[in-house]
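job 3f2a | input accepted
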Amino acid sequence: MEQTTFDLALPVAIGSDHAGFAYKEEVISYLEGKGLQVEDFGTHSVDSVDYPDFAHPVANAVESGGYAYGILICGSANGVAITANKHQGIRAAICWGDELARLARSHNNANVLCIPARFVDTATAKEMVDIFGETPFEGGRHMNRVSKIACS
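job 3f2a | predicted structure (152 res):
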């Protein structure tokens, strides 16, 4: 059975495209201010980029087991979520509110939080980051469902 809570002694992997850059910078500062380690997989400016170039490295990092969890941010969160979910060991969830972040963790054992920068304010993004990082997976009846997600 998978770990039910994140090991916050490990760094958090974070990445964004240009649309999510400003939010990414704020979330990094927020997490570091709470004493968490964060590894920034880019992008490093507001110049136009392709979201898979940042979503794949974050997904690989989380999948490797060397990171507590991942955060991906783009305009709608759809692109980064679609990309990250191509990885067998990733369960990336688009969240735009506290309850969705809580359910993504407690019911789906999500390990990558995808934030739609164009649809939430930074205060909501930070609240979701807290909830996502602190909410345990319930297991139980949800474990059977989650175990059926991977294709291999």
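job 3f2a | The mean pLDDT is 95.
job 3f2a | closed
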